């Protein structure tokens, strides 16, 4: 065979990858010369022996985003190819899929009906552990993302007691997703899960869902089970209301949990709101420094001269081609235009309007202004700035995967509900920022918008505006002693923690 061109090899391998969804390819379907060429060129990386993944050339050493983006797809392919349907995920991994856990696990555990045990070591310290379980193989299964998993009731019964203590937020969401207690009753009675029943009843009581707890307890007593319910949680729970989706449950649980941390550490807001005109003038004075730091955090190469040029209206993409084409200049101009909209929102808040309601009404306008220069430069179509993102987004080198696009409406509706009904301005500021970035509703601009939200909510309580600094926590002054805010994630005790590591903790 003649030496293939890169274009020819890419075409053939891309066609072969369609068998597995477009990103994963088996070496059995590749010609050796195609494989070797694409590996050298950086288009293919090896997952394990016999399996490769499409990626982009020029990635930094240790770049993990491509792998995490394809992790569950590969797990589905690997298990199906090797075990067909004669496997099932462990209880914990099954629950991860049911609740759409956004963090990629370090290890996936699957049991099989026959065969021996093995471990497949995967990139970035992830793995799949396989072990035989012929006598206790799960019979109540479902398929999620192309993977065989236990039904949610069975997984909740078979999960280890320590899971409730190690993963309380996941446990809360999983329990709340059970809408009909009869499916739990059926599974418990069928398999005789007495100890599991005691934990589940105790967990629902801890969640203050006495109706579900009593329904399960009464039905199982009629089955002859003598139960002594126990609370499996060792820490307080926070999800006391019914939920319609996993995304809603996760957002409410996070908000209810971390609001207490904020209130504990933040001082009370000033007794009176500042004079609106004085406050807005102070914001104008801080614009150049604020824009410089906020854009630097996002990786834009800006300087104070560029920011001042834009602030002074000395930016004309129709006259100067460099202004139209320069990515950094477009970002800086967009920041300026969005900044003006944020000031209008803060003005309404200082005039007494509901802070959460204003953010809900004005956020889309901020986002559109942030990228208006890109529209003017014909890099983005205006309609593309309508609504939330239409595809998945990933965070570099993080095992945390932001919520799927189909979960965004529920997540953002819940977010706005929490923001609107939150009485404490410091909670609105810190969690308004953190949970917005946690959701990542847009393909770009989430960090900048999150910082806008934080400062608008600080204004709602009369707190001073905080300046962002690249790669560092915001060091607060005397009004917030011993407190730091990592402007791209959340409040933490250690300022050494960074954005990707912070998000995956939650």
Task: Describe the structure in your own words.
By secondary structure, this protein is of the alpha+beta class. It folds into four domains: 6-58, Orthogonal Bundle (Arc Repressor Mutant, subunit A), CATH 1.10.10; 84-150, no CATH class; 153-239, no CATH class; 246-504, Fido-like domain (Fic-like fold). Helix content is 51%, strand content 9%. It has 21 helices and eleven strands. The protein has helices at 6-17, 32-41, 65-83, 91-98, 152-158, 161-166, 168-176, 181-191, 194-206, 210-222, 246-265, 276-297, 304-311, 321-325, 327-350, 355-370, 372-376, 408-421, 425-439, 446-460, 499-504; strands spanning 24-26, 44-48, 51-54, 87-89, 107-112, 118-122, 126-132, 141-144, 147-150, 474-475, 484-485. It has a four-stranded mixed beta sheet. A three-stranded antiparallel beta sheet has the order 1-3-2. A hairpin with a 2-residue loop joins strand 8 (141-144) and strand 9. Helix 1 (6-17) packs across helix 2, helix 7 packs across helix 11 (246-265) and helix 9 (194-206) packs antiparallel against helix 10. The longest helix is centred in the last third of the chain and has 24 residues, at 327-350. The radius of gyration is 26 Å and the shape is flat.
């Amino acid at each position: 065979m003649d030496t293939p061109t890169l274009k020819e090899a890419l075409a053939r391998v891309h066609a072969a990858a369609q068998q597995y969804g477009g990103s994963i390819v088996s070496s059995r379907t590749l010609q050796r010369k195609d494989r070797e060429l694409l590996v050298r060129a950086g288009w293919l990386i090896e997952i394990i022996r016999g399996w490769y993944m499409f990626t982009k050339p020029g990635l930094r050493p240790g770049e993990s985003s491509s792998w995490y983006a394809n992790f569950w797809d590969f797990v589905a392919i690997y298990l199906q190819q090797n075990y067909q349907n004669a496997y099932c995920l462990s209880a914990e991994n099954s629950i991860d899929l049911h609740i759409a856990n956004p963090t990629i696990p370090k290890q996936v555990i699957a049991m099989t009906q026959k065969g021996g045990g093995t471990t497949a070591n995967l990139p970035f310290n992830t793995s799949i552990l396989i072990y035989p379980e012929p006598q206790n193989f799960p019979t109540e299964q479902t398929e999620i993302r192309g993977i065989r998993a236990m039904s949610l009731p069975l997984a909740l019964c078979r999960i280890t007691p320590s899971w409730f203590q190690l993963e309380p937020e996941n446990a809360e969401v999983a329990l709340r997703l059970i809408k009909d207690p009869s499916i739990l009753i059926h599974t418990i009675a069928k398999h005789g899960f007495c100890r599991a029943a005691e934990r589940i009843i105790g967990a629902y009581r801890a969640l203050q869902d006495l109706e579900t707890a009593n329904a399960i307890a009464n039905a199982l007593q009629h089955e002859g089970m003598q139960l002594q319910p126990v609370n499996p949680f060792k820490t307080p729970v926070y999800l006391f209301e019914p939920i319609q989706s996993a995304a809603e449950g996760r957002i409410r649980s996070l908000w209810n949990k971390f609001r207490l941390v904020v209130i504990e550490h933040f001082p009370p807001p000033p007794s009176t709101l500042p004079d609106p005109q004085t406050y807005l003038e102070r914001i104008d004075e801080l614009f150049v420094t604020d824009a410089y730091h906020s854009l630097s955090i996002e990786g834009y190469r800006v300087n104070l001269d560029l920011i001042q040029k834009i602030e002074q209206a000395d930016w004309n993409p129709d006259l100067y081609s460099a202004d139209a084409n320069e990515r950094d200049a477009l970002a800086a101009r967009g920041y300026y235009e969005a900044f003006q909209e944020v000031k209008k929102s803060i003005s309404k808040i200082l005039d007494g309007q509901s802070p959460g309601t204003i953010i809900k009404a004005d956020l889309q306008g901020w986002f559109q202004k942030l990228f208006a220069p890109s529209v003017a430069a014909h890099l983005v179509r205006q309609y593309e700035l309508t609504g939330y993102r239409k595809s998945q987004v990933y965070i570099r080198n993080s095992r945390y995967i932001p919520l799927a696009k189909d979960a965004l409406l529920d997540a953002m509706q819940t977010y706005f509900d929490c923001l609107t009904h939150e009485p404490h301005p410091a909670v609105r500021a810190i969690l308004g920022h953190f949970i917005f970035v946690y959701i990542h509703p847009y393909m770009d601009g989430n960090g900048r918008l999150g910082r806008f939200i934080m400062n608008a909510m600080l204004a709602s309580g009369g707190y001073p505006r905080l300046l962002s600094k690249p790669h560092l926590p915001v060091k607060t002054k005397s009004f917030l002693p011993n407190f730091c805010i990592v402007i791209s994630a959340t409040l933490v005790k250690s300022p050494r923690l960074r954005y990707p590591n912070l998000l995956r903790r939650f």
